[in-house]
Amino acid sequence: MRHPLDTLDWPIPTDRLLLRRAAPDDLDATWAYRRLPESHEWTMAATTTYAEHRERFLREERLADLLIVELDGRVIGDLTLQVQDAWAQEEVADQAKGVQGELGWTLDPGYGGKGYATEAVRALIDISFRSLGLRRLHADCFYDNEASWRLMERVGMRREQHAVKDSLHRTKGWLDGLSYALLAEEWPAPR
């Protein structure tokens, strides 16, 4: 089945960045920042060796959801968009197929604090709603990952859930988790 991101014309420029589909050739560039402890502190899978990163990065389903963020030709981060079906009753389930998405991001820590993640995530939200026609986006993070939930708030996402010790972190144990979301009719969010 064709991924919804395949239907768009890439690359897509923002004011300072370029978003494009990930390719196997991006393996080394993404490893450069994903191997850093401050990068993989909050990622779902902390690949600690190049071989682990290579195996995970080159999975077909991973590459399908992955976008690369470039600044002046240099890879500074990546974004994910997993298009999903909404929960629905059986009689209307066909109307709930591929209507929402889960967002994710990892930015090279050397480029933090300059608004690049905000710019890139805003662009992905815009692509998701305006170009792909999704109706809802959501993202989750650990409560302790303040940079991530602050980013969600900056781009206009609403906190929908604060769950107590529901999320298991690889080194910190059970932590609180946060869920944020945004509807198409709420976009564009005030800047």
TrEMBL record:
Among InterPro entries, the record links this protein to: Acyl_CoA_acyltransferase (IPR016181), GNAT_dom (IPR000182), N-acetyltransferase (IPR051531)
**Superkingdom of origin:** Bacteria
GO molecular function term, any single one? acyltransferase activity, transferring groups other than amino-acyl groups
Q: Which residues form the N-acetyltransferase domain?
A: 17-185
Q: Which PANTHER family does the entry mention?
A: GNAT FAMILY, PUTATIVE (AFU_ORTHOLOGUE AFUA_3G00765)-RELATED-RELATED, N-ACETYLTRANSFERASE DOMAIN-CONTAINING PROTEIN
- The protein here is known as GNAT family N-acetyltransferase
